Amino acid sequence: MIGAIEAGGTKFVCAVSDNSLNIIERVTIPTTHPEETFDSIFNFFDQYELKAIGIGSFGPINVNRQSETYGYITSTPKKLWRNIDFLGTVKRRYNIPIGWNTDVNASALGEITLGAAKGKSSCVYITVGTGIGGGAVVNQELLTGFGHPEMGHLLVPRHKKDTYKGVCDYHKDCLEGLASGPAIEERFGIRAKNLPEEHEAWEIEAHYLAHAAMAYTLILSPDCIIFGGGVMNQKHLLDLIKVKFLELLNDYVNLPPIDEYIIPTGLGSDSGIVGSLLLGKSQLK
Amino acid sequence: MIGAIEAGGTKFVCAVSDNSLNIIERVTIPTTHPEETFDSIFNFFDQYELKAIGIGSFGPINVNRQSETYGYITSTPKKLWRNIDFLGTVKRRYNIPIGWNTDVNASALGEITLGAAKGKSSCVYITVGTGIGGGAVVNQELLTGFGHPEMGHLLVPRHKKDTYKGVCDYHKDCLEGLASGPAIEERFGIRAKNLPEEHEAWEIEAHYLAHAAMAYTLILSPDCIIFGGGVMNQKHLLDLIKVKFLELLNDYVNLPPIDEYIIPTGLGSDSGIVGSLLLGKSQLK
């Protein structure tokens, strides 16, 4: 059996699967104080005999094996979770192999293995919700370098009608600061899910997300870009992003057909937990 | 013996080396009409018995082996070179293994194998000159996906004092449009190499290049970013970029020390030709 933790800023999803990734049980745990949250996680996993665990965590996290704080959550805006030894805490409870990466890298792995990017050798996964984050698979490997991508904090050109100051604690008007769910809500006074399709918000939102897709394209040249997260539940948004993106690119590089390039998730809200199971499974090889 | 072609927009450098990459002879050929340029290349290589050739070409080029136009230069602003079957033309003359990638990916390969990024597992190489281009090595492999990176055409936030329209044929005010040598010259009426160190141009230039470094960092998380190209011969520029970059990043992610992260080339103007020889040599394995 394999365990998985998808650690998000508002909730943790934990799951246990067999070796073929059939999920046997899953629970959702609110993200509160680390001690309390870990107690709930351990209560769940203690019922099973696990061979490996995969963790996909919100970030920034330390993925540098040479570092003394490898396995820590680092400079997150969630103050209670800053400098928490996530991997070590789980490792001390269950002395088994543990895969460790960001939630969005896990999602990219889930989507390229079993979801919308199945069969491809590269993809970007971006989630647009409470925060914005991105992960990627390049040459069939998870994208890590000195650290991991933080694609949600890209600095993007302003929409010419947008004077909103931005909501990011670190960069004010980065992509997350301007286009995350809380930014939409603060700017327009309505939650994204309640904004009507014809509201000007969507043209502004599409501007920022198209700029993100443009940067990912020009820097990574992936086989596809997958948009997930709560804000993308407004289904008309994806088409607006495609139109803006093609305008910005102006035919400069060859791409797959746009409807195969900028695409929705194949696993829906399960990308992260499936990817985390895959991270766990990869430790058994 | 290994042959190499570093194909640039203004000149081609061709070289021949032994198997240890000691360069035996090199020539520089102006980039004129393709037929004339290829004649000069063949005149040079015909003197040697080559086992393999590496080509690092200006782009965009087609690096997708599944494509019918694999090996072509595609939508380049240099009209004479648009839709030219570069790889095929060389392959028909010398029926030997040929490595094919962008000039900047070749430079990244040169720098990580024998230059400033030696021993690292990832790097970005960016050249700032007549154009701006970037290449990368990720997990010790050249970064390619559906196509290749076109990092010079990033869309970056405007410097607040800069109203210059931009020089890029495709995107007007992308990074290349605002920060390449021709953009500096048209905006200020002086060639970059003749602009004094205290000129306001450098603060504007550093703004754009720091934004580029920020995007490469947030999307790729490389071990280092290497700045090369003619504009970087103004040695004070690199320090200005570092200062701006750290301001923008605002301590959000852990990085290597800045003087080991944003760095000059190790191979100087030889990154591209050395990388092209390496592309050739890699075909012999």
Strand order of the largest sheet of chain A: 3-2-1-4-7
What is the SS-derived class of chain A? alpha/beta
Shape of chain A: globular
- Work out the helix count of chain A: 9
| CATH superfamily label of the largest domain in chain A | ATPase, nucleotide binding domain
CATH class of the largest domain in chain A: Alpha Beta
Interface with most residues: A-B, 49 and 49 residues
Radius of gyration of chain A: 19 Å
- The count of domains of chain A is 2
Spans of chain A of at least 5 consecutive residues whose pLDDT stays below 50 are: none
- Oligomeric nature of the chains: homodimer
Strand proportion of chain A, as a percent range, falls in 15-25%
Overall mean pLDDT of chain A stands at: 96
> Between the first and last Cα atoms of chain A, what is the distance in angstroms?
14 Å
User: And the CATH topology of the largest domain in chain A?
Assistant: Nucleotidyltransferase, domain 5
Protein name (chains A, B): Fructokinase
Catalytic activity (chains A, B): D-fructose + ATP = D-fructose 6-phosphate + ADP + H(+)
EC number (chains A, B): 2.7.1.4
Pfam family, one (chains A, B): ROK
Mind explaining what this structure looks like?
Two copies of one chain form a homodimer. Chain A is of the alpha/beta class and 285 residues long. Chain A folds into two domains: 2-102, ATPase, nucleotide binding domain (Nucleotidyltransferase, domain 5), CATH 3.30.420.40; 116-264, ATPase, nucleotide binding domain (Nucleotidyltransferase, domain 5). In chain A, 33% of the residues lie in helices and 20% in strands. The first copy, chain A, is built from nine helices and twelve strands. In chain A, strands 3-2-1-4-7 form a five-stranded mixed beta sheet, sandwiched between helices. Chain A has a five-stranded mixed beta sheet with strand order 10-9-8-11-12, sandwiched between helices. The first copy, chain A, has a two-stranded antiparallel ribbon with strand order 5-6. In chain A, strand 2 (11-17) and strand 3 (23-30) form a beta hairpin. The first copy, chain A, is globular and about 55 Å long. Chain A starts with a strand and ends with a helix. At the A-B interface, strand 9 and helix 6 of A face strand 9 and helix 6 of B. Chains A, B: GO terms for molecular function: ATP binding; fructokinase activity; metal ion binding. Chains A, B: Belongs to the ROK (NagC/XylR) family. Chains A, B: It is an enzyme of class 2 (transferase). Chains A, B: It catalyses: D-fructose + ATP = D-fructose 6-phosphate + ADP + H(+).
